[in-house]
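Hi U.,

Before I forget, here's the chain from the pilot set. I'm dumping it here mostly so it's searchable later in email.
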Amino acid sequence: MEYRQLGSSDLKVSEIALGSWLTYGVGVEADQAKACVDRAFELGINFIDTANVYGRGAAESFLGETLKGRKRDSYVLATKVFFPMSDTDKGLSRVQIEKQIDASLTRLKTDYVDLYQCHRYDPDTPLEETMEALSAVVRAGKARYIGFSEWSPDQIEAAMKLSKEAGLEKFVSSQPQYSILWPRPDKKVIPISAASGVSQIVWSPLAQGVLTGKYKPNSPPPADSRAASDQMGGFIKRFMEKPVLEAVQKMKPLADEAGLTMTQFALAWVLREPNVASAIVGASKPSQLDENAGASGVKVDPALFAKAEAMAAAVMGG
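Structure:
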């Protein structure tokens, strides 16, 4: 496993991160989920990403129990705030950030998180209020650094400008959806971030598992797959259209030529970008992590990636 610097922070994170969206505390049995966390550590994965809203606290609670026997400085822990935790608890107001960081820390059984992220932008709260509240969290020692997920280029630039002018804490990370099938951050988010000392920690680098190649056109999804799960399959439909699945099958020979599995090829495409610090994977079994970890540090002929990009653009649009 290789490691990269997370933006302008002093955090070194593994190129592959273990995520918990839709899986731990929700769609994966506890024993199997714990086996995945244990295997992640064995493979050198030191970065674990979660959010308060995942299972309405269930993912954080699971991780709190699972990680409590490990040295706190042996892993980098990230969580998020924004989405509703109740009918009234939501958003990025000062009150909510103060309330939700304490609730997250209680569930995670830790005194601090390494990275506290705005899960989305809150148009109902002044940006200055949000940045001041996040800065207070860092200065209280409850988080070491702050980040955001799925903010627009204008929102990113406004936050960076405000941090500089008001002497507030500065974002060090961005968490966008990013994959061969979803390369949109390439256009603006990555260039703006790179110029501001912000790294990407990307979610869905395998397009919800579609880029593993396991979903075949005209065939039902495997019974043990995310697409077949009522609990975990709700976000995969956009990638399950027949032309997309056909394009992914056509990428397999490119992966073969690179000496990689389709999964590793897709993860290596994400990691080819220097501004990406880590790719978040969601594993439901330890063997998946073995394969994922094999993408760290590999070098692929850019011509093979270019061919895959063209195939993806033909079915997903530029």
